[in-house]
């Protein structure tokens, strides 16, 4: 069960994968949601009350919603899957409704601590939050990812010889696109004039945050800053394959799947090692503990232009990518689940 069942996002993909695996293991399994994308199918969450008392509920927690209250009041044998919630303050001044949803979600989360049988967390960072709130039985259950769906189609976007700096993620204040733009300004001005910044991800063209980013780029006289909007999986591989470096300066992530997508394509990553990014990166890639646009720009230049360094970076990322292998993560989910329902 989840509030919003969206097509193509990390939580929606996880729900689909869990449901498929449970059925393949011989269980009856259905998806319950409130808002459902037109490409997907789910039962209305209120139909859950018809389920037998002995059933188990995996509830995916990621935002404020009336469905949270429903799961809290009606859930039986609940296993919480915590995907994290962005702190509301990131949306202050940009999106009042989003800030309110995040605040409500964080305030309610602690009430689940004494009501669930078990709690799964997408990363060690998420698990630490659950433990702080008093959840007694927890485990890290990372995403079961299908990277085979994303391939290099051969269509490398903006393939004109320029250095392409890539970031993938919806345009939201916690992702700190303004830091990407500021860093790119220093990189392009002082180190690599023949470069561009490509930011892949959905955005509201009338949203205050997006408009502030466009104004920032214009104020810095940056013409090579690209907002692509949402990109389908079959096209996304071309952006990764055609890039020179992946840059992530997000201030809050529960996991950050695009980091692993970059690793799959052998694309060196420079990232701010905070929140869930620290867990996903491990000791791989190039990470910094604090944000300084000049220092980050210099690191980007070194990684791009030092072949030996780039080789070491990519090799470290390959090992980290293998850690999150599909079969390994599937076994982890199954073993965790069996330890709960078997007991």
Fold and architecture overview:
The longest helix has 17 residues, at 307-323. The chain has twelve helices and 13 strands. Helix 5 (177-190) crosses helix 10 (293-305) and helix 10 (293-305) packs across helix 11. Helix 4 (124-132) links the parallel strand 6 and strand 7 (138-140). 41% of the residues lie in helices and 16% in strands. It is an alpha/beta fold.
What is the strand and helix layout of this fold?
Elements lengths: L1 E4 L4 H15 L7 E5 L6 E2 L12 E5 L4 H9 L3 E5 L13 H14 L8 E4 L2 H9 L5 E3 L22 E6 L8 H14 L4 E6 L7 H12 L5 E5 L3 H9 L3 E4 L9 H7 L4 E4 L3 H6 L4 E3 L4 H13 L1 H17 L2 H16 L2
Parallel strand pairs: 1-2, 2-3, 4-5, 5-6, 6-7, 8-9, 8-11, 9-10, 11-12, 12-13
Short description:
By secondary structure, the protein is of the alpha/beta class. The protein contains twelve helices and 13 strands.
Helical percentage: 40-55%
Give the SSE order as H and E letters.
Answer: EHEEEHEHEHEEHEHEHEHEHEHHH
What is the rounded Rg? 21 Å
Structural class: alpha/beta
Q: Strand arrangement, largest sheet? A: 10-9-8-11-12-13
Distance between the termini: 22 Å
Q: Biggest sheet, in brief? A: 6 strands, parallel
Task: Name the features.
343 residues, 16% strand, 12 helices, alpha/beta, four-stranded parallel β-sheet
């Amino acid at each position: 069960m989840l509030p919003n069942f969206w097509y193509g996002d990390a939580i929606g993909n996880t729900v689909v994968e869990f449901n498929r695996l449970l059925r393949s293991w011989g269980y009856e399994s259905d998806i319950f949601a409130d808002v459902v994308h037109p490409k997907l199918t789910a039962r209305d969450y209120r139909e859950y009350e018809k389920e037998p008392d002995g059933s188990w509920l995996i509830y995916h927690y990621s935002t404020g919603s009336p469905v949270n209250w429903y799961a809290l009041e009606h859930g039986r044998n609940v296993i919480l899957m915590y995907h994290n919630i962005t702190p509301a303050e990131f949306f202050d001044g940009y999106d009042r409704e989003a800030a309110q949803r995040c605040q409500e979600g964080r305030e309610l989360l602690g009430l689940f601590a004494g009501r669930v049988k078990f709690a799964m967390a997408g990363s060690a960072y998420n698990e630490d939050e659950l433990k702080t709130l008093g959840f007694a039985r927890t485990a890290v259950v990372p995403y079961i990812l299908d990277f085979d769906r994303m391939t290099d189609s051969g269509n490398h976007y903006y393939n004109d010889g320029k250095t392409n700096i890539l970031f993938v993620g919806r345009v939201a204040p916690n992702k700190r696109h303004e830091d990407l733009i500021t860093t790119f300004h220093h990189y392009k001005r002082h180190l690599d004039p023949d470069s561009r910044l490509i930011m892949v991800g959905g955005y509201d063209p009338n949203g205050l945050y997006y408009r502030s980013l466009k104004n920032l780029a214009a104020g810095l006289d940056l013409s090579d800053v690209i907002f692509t909007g949402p990109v389908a999986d079959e096209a996304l591989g071309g952006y990764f394959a055609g890039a020179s470096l992946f840059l992530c300066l997000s201030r809050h992530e529960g996991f950050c799947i695009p980091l692993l997508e970059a690793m799959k394509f052998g694309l060196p990553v420079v990232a701010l090692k905070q929140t869930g990014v620290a867990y996903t990166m491990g000791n791989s890639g190039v990470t910094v503990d604090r944000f300084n646009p000049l220092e980050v720009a210099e690191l980007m230049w070194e990684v791009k232009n030092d072949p030996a360094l780039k080789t070491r970076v990519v090799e470290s990322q390959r090992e980290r990518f293998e850690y999150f292998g599909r079969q390994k993560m599937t076994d982890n989910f199954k073993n965790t689940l069996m330890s709960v329902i078997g007991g």
